[in-house]
Design goal:
Strand content: 15-25%
CATH architecture of the largest domain: 2-Layer Sandwich
Distance between the termini: 42 Å
CATH topology of the largest domain: D-amino Acid Aminotransferase, Chain A, domain 1
Shape: globular
Number of helices: 10
Largest sheet: 5 strands, antiparallel
Number of domains: 3
């Protein structure tokens, strides 16, 4: 009888996205075939306590992190797992770190010639006034923590009063806050899968219900069942879909990602594709786009997690061949 692969699913974590992570992990565990895998569920509390214990690192074959946001998606956990010499799903330290920081992400994409929206960065010690932001970026403005996801701490503002309140609230989650120009366009998402030769899924569209939510907020994503509609695949010409897929793959490569990511873009009326952000541990909840996009591309959840685990082990074996002495 073939020995089962021992998989540890990590979830929870010290992040504002703790609850989303728990929901994602349940779906990952449900997709893991019990005939192939021996699964250990490891929950990390908001106080950084590991349950059951940290000793699991010595007794698993691969780790599947389902940790959204800081202290899980930003390279910190990936660094720990590399030091522990354990294969893990998703991008490694560098890709995770640069993709988590929206400021660094945008600078790298801009230098690579990938279209992005204009932005400014503000901190407590180097603040950007509403007047300056308005002059440079126009109105409305989007305010968001540089290192967070799931639309936590994100605000759409039009007045100085709203601006000041949004900056103050965003600074509760991060020391660096993004001020982004408003881009009028359809919200497109594309899932990426692979290591050295990644492939793109079909493109999906988020259709926010603006009568209830001004944008695709945390509430629209997770709390309101009718907060947004999903069109998979998106109703766009094949030429435009190919353009989005190519840009998504290029984004994935420029940011040194491997394994998996989801790239979010805007599609303007002029046919321009503008990259908004990338998620290196995308949601796996019942309404999350990453698994839905791959299912629409012919890869159901069970096959998807099989592929992700195989990619993690393949990368580990590849890197193990590298010289560590001279």
């Amino acid at each position: 009888m073939k020995q089962k692969i021992r998989v540890a699913v990590l979830f929870g974590g010290k992040s504002a996205e703790h609850e989303v992570s728990i929901r994602s992990a349940k779906n990952v565990v449900a997709a893991l075939d019990p005939e192939k895998y021996e699964v250990t569920e490891i929950q990390i509390s908001k106080t950084e306590r590991w349950l059951p214990t940290e000793s699991f690192l010595q007794s698993v074959d691969v780790v599947f992190p389902v940790l959204h946001g800081p202290f899980g998606e930003d390279g910190t956990m990936q660094g720990l797992l590399k030091l522990a010499n354990v294969p893990f799903v998703g991008p490694s330290v560098l890709g995770s770190a640069v993709a988590m920081d929206k400021d660094v992400t945008k600078r790298l994409l801009r230098d690579a010639g990938i279209p992005i929206g204009d932005f400014l960065v503000t901190t407590k010690t180097d603040p950007v006034s509403f007047k300056k932001a308005k002059k440079r970026l126009g109105i409305p403005l989007f305010i968001k923590p540089a290192n967070l996801g799931s639309s936590v701490g994100v605000y759409k503002v039009k007045t100085e009063t709203e601006y000041d309140a949004a900056i103050g609230n965003a600074l509760k989650f991060d020391t660096k806050v993004m001020i982004e120009t408003f881009i009028k366009g359809r919200e497109m998402e594309c899932a990426i899968l692979g290591n050295e030769d990644p492939r793109a899924s079909v493109v999906g569209e988020i259709i926010p219900r603006y009568e209830e939510h001004e944008f695709y907020s945390y509430e629209a994503k997770y709390l309101d069942e009718n907060g947004a509609g999903l069109e998979i695949p998106a109703k766009i010409p094949k030429k435009i879909e190919k353009k989005i897929q190519d840009i998504a793959i290029k984004t994935f490569k420029v940011l040194a990602c491997e394994g998996m990511s989801r790239v979010d873009c805007f599609l303007t009326d002029k046919g321009e594709v503008i990259v908004n952000e990338i998620n290196t541990i995308p949601g796996f909840t019942s309404i999350s786009m990453y698994p839905k996009l791959w299912e629409a591309s012919g890869i159901p959840p069970k096959k998807l997690v099989d592929t992700l685990i195989a990619l993690a082990i393949a990368r580990f074996k590849r890197d193990a061949k590298l010289k560590t002495s001279y």
